[in-house]
Amino acid sequence: MPSLTLPITEAMLAVLDVETTGLRPESGDRVVEIAIARSVGGRILDTYQTLINPERTMGAGAQRVHGISDAMVADAPIFREIAPQVLDRLDGAIMVGHNAPFDLGFITSELFIAGCPMPPIIALDTLRLARHYYPSGSYALGALAEAMAVRVEERAHRALADVCLTHGVLKRIVRDLWPRGVRTVADYLQVQGGSLSYGVVDPARVPEPIRQALSEGRLLWIAYRSEGGQESRRMVKPLQIIERSTGLYLDAFCQLRQARRTFRLDRIVEMDVVQRF
Q: 126-133 and 185-192 are packed helices; what angle lies between their axes, rounded to 10 degrees?
């Protein structure tokens, strides 16, 4: 992990952006495109971009935003197949994103489904940094970049174009804040309000049937024992895994109650993935 005392101009940055099927990974939305540019001192060293088969249909609203169709990703790799390349580009780097918690949430979810733990990571959010120092009518990436006179050749709302815009916005922020004494990684973390939370849960701590149901979008049959010792059997649609001080919980839509419920993992006494008919 990079040193917090390192000047931001000397740190390896991994500027990242994802396009997705929707807005909520906890509701089953998946990544359909990822782009990463590694940069030092304001100079991009290399870029990585790929479409990804999300193993589900594209949300109509999302397709209107990024223009990626089901047909375009039909033959693309699934995230599990490109996870090593993503992790390699994040290794030893500071991740940078515009609204970075959104990207981190999806990357963490995808790595969890792929059975890969999310490594500890330092992340900077150009959205939070810009809000702190730049009055603007809109902090959407395109509008902010235009206000800052940041230009890139490709302006479509796609992952690599957004990465290039985010990189340009960060360069402008660094240029403006350096004379004010905001110079180290720690300085930038302080300006944005501290480290970003992204809910890391090691997949090895989660039973395989739950991981399979999350990965394949299937229902899960469970036998659950309540705190009072009563046992019930029900079908649930797993949404995400949550870690609390009392343990790991399965956040799921319960078919029995027709509502969203959480189930403590150590109280699920039996479970099985429901096969498609």
A: 70
Tokens 């918690």 belong to 101
Q: Which residues are catalytic?
A: 157
Residue 58 identity (one-letter amino acid)? M
What is the rounded distance in angstroms from the CA atom of residue 224 to the CA atom of residue 221?
10
Block means of pLDDT (10 residues each) for the chain, 277 residues, are 92 97 85 97 96 92 92 96 96 96 91 86 96 88 91 72 95 96 96 83 90 88 93 92 86 89 94 81
pTM of the model: 0.82
Q: Give residues with Cβ within 8 angstroms of 228, minimum separation 6.
A: none
Q: How far apart are CA 225 and CA 220, in angstroms?
A: 16
End-to-end CA distance of the chain: 47
Beta bridge partner(s), residue 180:
none
